[in-house]
Specification:
single chain, mainly alpha, five-stranded mixed β-sheet, 5 strands
Length: 710
Amino acid sequence: MVLAAWVVIVSALVLILPGAFVGRRMNLPWPVAFAAGPAITFALVSILTVLYSAVGFEWNAVSALVGLVLALAGAWLYSRLLGTGIGRRLAPVPTETGEPRVGRTAILRAAAGLGLGGLIIAITCIRPVAKTAFAGLNNISQVWDSLWHASSLRWIDETGIGSAMRMGELMNYDTQGFNYYPNTWHALGALLFPLTGANPVELYNTYSPAVLAVTVPLGVASLAYWFARHRYDVDNSALIAGTAAAVAALFPSLPYVEVQLTSVPNAVGVSLAPVAAVLVLSVVRDRSRVAPAALAVAGVTATHPSGLILVGVIVGLWWLCEGLWRPATSRLADLATLAVTAVLTMILISPVVIGTIRVADTNELPFFDFREEGIGVLRGLAQGAFNGTIPLELNHFPIWPLIIVTVLGLGVLAWLRCWAGLAVWLVFALVTTNSVVSLGLLSYPLGAIGGYFYNSPHRLTFVVAIFSAAAAGVAIGVAVIALIGVIGRRFAQSDETSVKGTARAGWLVASTYVVLLALIAGAAVVRYPPNAQIASKERGGKYVGPDDLAAYAWLASQPDAQDVLVLNNLDQGTGWLYPVTGVTPMFPFYRANEFSERQRDLFWGVAKIGADPATDQIVRDMNVHYVIDSPTSYWEFQRGRPDPANGHQGDPFLELRENGAPGLTEVFRQGEAVVYRVNDLVYPPPPPVEGAPAEGVPPVEAPPVPVPAP
């Protein structure tokens, strides 16, 4: 747990500080700069990794530091331009409204809630893995995506290639065909290897929840602060935001389901979307924020494009529900400012746009259908609105305390006139419902929005839960503020001086807030068993277990294994060989963007090694010296005997398992994990050189030559 704590601390610092410094240098106030820090950090990583890849620089801690210095210089130049005559005309200094700025009191209140929420999330996600899962922090998640994330972390660290445009080089060893993947989260995580000393699996298991422990409370707090500022002052709004940040850690889908199902980059991008959206909304009153707001949105998008959709929905519904009716300057000027922000964002995310378009034909996820038979519209609405979709529906729905405070919070949002917040919650509740059960005429437009989240109920539930947690935090925070007001009036004394009265009021608020956070911490203790079980559920070794780790370790110990290729069955998840040991498998993931002919022939002809000259030549050409087999395969259609006539893929390694192959010699077996070495039928020993001893025969020592006596 010491290593885990260190990774959490370093992850938080590396995530927040670079973006915060750049944001502050771009004239953002310190509290706003820290809130936008993670999103701006991801934007810098996205831009730098693409540029470095284009010019041939490696991505590592040193080059990242150089990039940060360049970014600070650019931010300084931006702030200087704002001070010129043209800059003051384009972005005039906002007029003073007389409202107090965010001060120490507000910062402490928000920070306390953010810290508690982050601590709850980190402990709930990491502790059960470290304490109960096989291999501890070296445990292998059994979920499909986790292999890609862990492999990406190692690959970026080893190669220095962090560009999202070059991930095909990892996905397919042979073809290295083009593949775009939003890689910002991985590129930032790869910088932590020299700082933490963790191996790739340990880093993946701790870095994933560590980042979410920062972004989830921050995203919920930003929404709650925005809601509260409709009626409350800065200090009370900060108390409400801190409350919401702490309460967010109680919701099972924030982020425990996402940690279980390993959709962490999506969860990080979506959880930062409210921060970027609220910053975008502020540009209509302060145009100097256009560039940092565009950077924040670019960072959200580069982490996962689904975050851009959420930003767009929040800003669009805010404009329709609030901004259009209460413009900051004029409707046309406000709309133009938002349009400039959008154009600058599109320039910054151009690699994302280009990459997404290029892989659109091969990306099948938006067409997945997760709807369930036998679920009515009313039950689907309940699941979509109150966090009850799969996998929560099975054992963790309904959670009535969370549902009650959410409903109360939605009522408080109506009282606060937060129409945009209510509208966004309603839209995504309907989109989530539509992913469970068809909503008739609304199915197409709702499905179009949900397609950017793969119409996956758990991903959409995550979005709804962000707004539900913010609403719940607002309800609790408003109730506490009202209670403080009642207590303050009840015990007020007329003979007290105003200074004493102010001090007493401050202590009353502080002590009440501490009690509130203590109650939330107690609720987290109550919620720990189910939430920890959710976060660590897929950790039992169903596909990759202790036997596989033993096989990987044996392979890594062979002196010739580091410089050769290992043929593996990608359907079995044996690509974990790479992140665990660094040994190169032919298929490092469960799929490949483009199979080559020789990959296909070798994969389906593994049992012919040593018997088919064409297959043997492929083995030699690709420098394959080992084969690893470890059933079972991930999906049902990948198991059993191949039957192409009836559309059943089957397992090409089944024949090898049953009958062996002449060119393969079994050299390791533990459980169902088997390693074969390619033998002399494929790699015949070189013929003996005349005068040299035959291979395996010790040389004959020549008799000593007599030395003549003097």
